[in-house]
């Protein structure tokens, strides 16, 4: 058994959003989702199982992680220990080259890289589908970061199967630009999991959210297949606004946006009215991701960069799957 392994993975931006669970223990998504994995943003994770540790230790960007995060990772590692039949604890080092916990999908790239490194270190030989289903237990969106390019994650089915993501098209299929407009580096006030629980129990729109998800998936699959930016953009904006409407309508209302978020949305709508094809999407946080053609990216980025409340703009493009690094 290898005891040490290292992997990298990229976050993804959801074009059709996952939100809600039908099984909280097994983390089964209530709706399907489609994302694009992002090159440029990276999580590097190293796992080492060791004799003599009394518990797992987690370090994020070189600093010891808090109790809550360590517990979440340790529970996830319990599943790997159970499958591999090992009882050693481990050290996990996770390094992000982008803000952590601020709605930039650090849990997606984090659990994708961790699944790969920890399963390898534990001697489990998993294929990509098994790896994706494993990553899903850590975080639903992580199931998608196991793959590169355009990726779909299915909702849970009635037969009680283990949902896993699969690749629709690889990262070379459609060279889109995704510009991440960073509005804050601060961690967000509510994690996705707790906010999902609030909307499920206390948003009057939750039922409609689940009911209408499949049609967004159909439209998005077709838009990607046809490389139709307008259809992709309109469907992505609809899914994002529907999600945030669901959040705002819950009790208590959850508003992830800040002034920079509003400024970026307004600017994107204005650019479109001037003939520049740009579309926004927003995950569970205040950052705005703007999708456009690569040749329009410099102009769109210039427009975003000067807005009040935008700290910086990170240029991204469709990126590759999670992968192991040589030790
Ligand atoms: C808005 O994957 O973070 O980014 O499964 O509870 O860890 P857990 O949730 P998480 O939720 C992501 C929500 C989203 C939309 C998406 O990525 O599809």
Give a structural overview.
- With 327 residues, the protein is of the alpha+beta class.
- Helix content is 38%, strand content 23%.
- Strands 8-7-9-6-1-16 form a six-stranded mixed beta sheet, with helices on one face.
- The two termini are 14 Å apart.
- The structure holds ligand DP6.
- Ligand DP6 is lined by residues 14, 17-19, 27, 33, 107, 139-141, 192-193, 196, 283-284.
SSE topology:
Elements (H helix, E strand, L loop, with lengths): L3 E6 L2 E5 L4 E3 L4 E2 L3 E5 L5 E8 L6 E4 L2 E2 L2 H18 L4 E8 L9 H16 L6 H11 L3 H4 L4 E4 L11 E5 L7 E6 L9 H11 L3 H20 L3 H20 L10 H15 L4 E4 L6 E5 L4 H9 L6 E5 L6 E3 L2
Parallel strand pairs: 7-9
Antiparallel strand pairs: 1-6, 1-16, 2-5, 3-4, 5-10, 6-9, 7-8, 10-11, 12-14, 12-15, 13-14
The chain binds ligand DP6.
Explain briefly what this protein structure is:
With 327 residues, the chain is an alpha+beta fold. Helix content is 38%, strand content 23%.
Q: Keyphrases for this structure?
A:
single chain; 327 residues; alpha+beta; 6-stranded mixed beta sheet; 4-stranded antiparallel beta sheet; 38% helix; globular; binds ligand DP6
The biggest beta sheet, please?
6 strands, mixed
Kindly name the structural category: alpha+beta
Number of helical regions: 9
Helix content: 25-40%
Radius of gyration: 19 Å
Series of secondary-structure elements, N-terminal to C-terminal: EEEEEEEEHEHHHEEEHHHHEEHEE
As laid out across the biggest beta sheet, the strand order is 8-7-9-6-1-16
Unreliably modeled segments: none
């Amino acid at each position: 058994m290898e005891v040490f392994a290292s992997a990298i993975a990229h976050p993804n931006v959801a074009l059709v959003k996952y939100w809600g669970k039908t099984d909280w223990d097994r983390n089964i998504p209530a709706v399907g989702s489609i994302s694009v994995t992002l090159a440029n943003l990276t999580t590097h994770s190293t796992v080492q199982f060791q004799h003599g540790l009394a518990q797992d230790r987690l370090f994020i960007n070189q600093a010891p992680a808090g109790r809550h995060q360590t517990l979440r990772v340790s529970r996830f590692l319990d599943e790997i220990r159970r499958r591999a039949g090992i009882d050693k604890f481990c050290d996990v080092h996770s390094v992000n080259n982008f803000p952590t916990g601020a709605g930039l999908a650090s849990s997606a790239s984090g659990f994708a890289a961790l699944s790969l490194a920890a399963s390898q270190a534990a001697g489990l030989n998993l294929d990509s589908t098994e790896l994706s289903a494993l990553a899903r237990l850590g975080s639903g969106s992580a199931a998608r970061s196991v793959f590169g390019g355009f990726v779909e994650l299915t909702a849970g089915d009635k037969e009680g199967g283990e949902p896993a993501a699969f690749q629709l098209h690889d990262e070379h299929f459609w060279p889109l630009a995704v510009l991440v407009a960073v509005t804050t580096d601060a961690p967000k006030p509510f994690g996705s999991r707790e906010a999902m629980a609030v909307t499920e129990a206390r948003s009057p729109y939750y039922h409609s959210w689940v009911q209408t998800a499949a049609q967004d998936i159909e439209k998005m699959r077709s838009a990607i297949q046809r490389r139709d930016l307008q259809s992709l953009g309109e469907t992505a904006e609809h899914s994002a606004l529907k999600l945030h409407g669901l959040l705002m309508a819950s009790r208590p209302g959850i508003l992830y946006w800040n002034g920079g978020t509003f400024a970026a949305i307004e600017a994107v709508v204005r650019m479109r009215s001037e003939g520049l094809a740009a579309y926004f999407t927003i995950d569970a946080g205040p950052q705005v991701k703007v999708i456009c053609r690569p040749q329009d990216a410099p102009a769109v980025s210039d427009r975003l960069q000067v807005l009040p409340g935008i700290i910086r703009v990170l240029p991204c493009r469709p990126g590759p799957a999670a992968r192991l690094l040589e030790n």
